[in-house]
Amino acid sequence: MTDVFSGKYKLSKSTNFDEFLTELGKSTRQLVKSASPELQITRNGDGWHVETKAGVGHSEFTFTLGEEFEEVRQDDVKVRSLVVQDGNKWTQTQTPVDGVKIVTIVREFGGSEMITTATVGDVTSTRIFDRVD
User: Fold this and answer.
1) Which domains does the chain carry?
2) Quick check: 33 and 22 in contact, CB under 8 A?
3) Which regions span the lipid bilayer (predicted)?
């Protein structure tokens, strides 16, 4: 089976991201919005590593599909995360330790891009990342 997930991705288009950050309660929206994130996804056996670099921000996490793990998001909120796979899609659910504002992120991988939809409350943002490797 071909690995459609591993690779390097760079943001090319974003819609409704400001509204998403507002709903999330992110106080540094302008700084976050101006960043053009790059993601590097690598596989290590049954595990995956995702590293995101965006301007002054950096985050990374390692996980195994279907197993809950702890993560600190780029907004410094500690969450319990779970990533499940369905075909060429990963669905990640981030539940803050305080139980407030659950975020769901769906990453759909194609040959030349990754489409990411992130939802918090009733607000959904779509971001398209071009594969650059």
Assistant:
1) 7-128 (2.40.128.20)
2) no
3) none
